[in-house]
Design brief:
There is one protein chain. The chain has 259 residues and is α/β, with parallel strands linked by helices. Strand 4, helix 3 and strand 5 form a beta-alpha-beta unit. The protein has an eight-stranded mixed sheet. The chain has nine helices and eight strands. Helix 8 packs antiparallel against helix 9 (236-258). The longest helix is centred in the middle third of the chain and has 30 residues, at 155-184.
């Protein structure tokens, strides 16, 4: 497989490195800025361009690792209608590629990425989808070279998966940030919370999250919850979040019990 990687951000970088390590032939990087494209091309030992006119047109696979709102514009600029083109987004339907490509699909690694943090792609689920069985098998073959968890997921399922990922990753990380700021107010180190974070994460590896819920909300400890709300009076947004989540924990627990 000769691959053109479109994008130079966090996902493009980590995915490109994983494919390169698996001996994929990455022939070109296509990016918006020369600096970023050149840097990634140097890492992957391949050519680069920022001009659609200079894009390699005979590759086997074009991976669009770009922002969601750039996918349609990017594929429209590529003169590769007969080649296999995939995007890597969690919430964008596969059919967005149909206007400009005859062979298309999705190659969605379910993970959060940073340019400078290594990840082990073998443990990262890669969700694939394609417009026909032949293209699906091609994507399965490519994904299987870097991941041990390749899953066939349609666009509706992938959107739901992405929504769930926002809750368990993006929202939870924001709560970490709030916790860090609360500790900073009392000159306490965020490291104090890390064993608790690890234990909470470890539990959901083996149990249903609902079954291991702890804290004042699930106990119905109204005195503690009111104390916490009082402590948050200086930040109404956090106070509202605290009240809303506490209420949802109580309602969700009752809902699960009735169900």
């Amino acid at each position: 497989m000769r691959i053109v990687l479109c994008g130079t951000g966090n996902l493009a970088t980590r995915l490109g490195i994983a494919l390169f390590a698996a001996d994929a032939e990455i022939v070109q990087i296509f990016g918006r800025t020369e600096k970023n494209a050149a840097e990634l091309a140097h890492i992957l030992h391949c050519a680069f361009t920022i001009s659609p006119e200079e894009l390699v047109t005979d590759a086997d696979l074009y991976i669009l690792a770009v922002s969601d709102d750039s996918i349609e514009k990017t594929v429209a600029n590529l003169a590769i209608r007969d080649r296999l083109v995939v995007h890597t987004a969690g919430s964008v339907p596969m059919e967005i590629l149909a206007v400009s490509a005859k062979n298309f699909g999705v190659f969605y690694p379910l993970q959060t990425f940073s340019k400078n943090k290594e990840v082990d792609f073998r443990n990262i689920p890669i969700c694939i989808e394609a417009n026909n069985a032949s293209n699906l098998e091609i994507l399965n073959g490519v994904a299987s070279t870097i991941s041990e968890q390749v899953v066939r997921v349609d666009s509706n399922q992938r959107k739901q998966l992405h929504l769930a990922a926002v809750f368990v990753c993006n929202f939870v990380n924001h709560f970490y940030s709030i916790g860090e700021q609360l500790l900073n107010e009392q000159q306490l180190n965020f490291d104090l919370l890390k064993p608790l974070i690890r234990e909470t994460a470890d539990k959901v590896m083996n149990y249903s999250p609902a079954s291991v819920q702890t804290g004042p909300a699930i106990r119905g400890d109204n005195a503690v919850m009111q104390m916490h709300r009082n402590m948050l009076e200086g930040n109404p947004a956090w106070q509202e979040i605290y009240s809303l989540i506490s209420k949802e924990i109580r309602v969700g627990t009752h809902r699960d019990a009735v169900g």
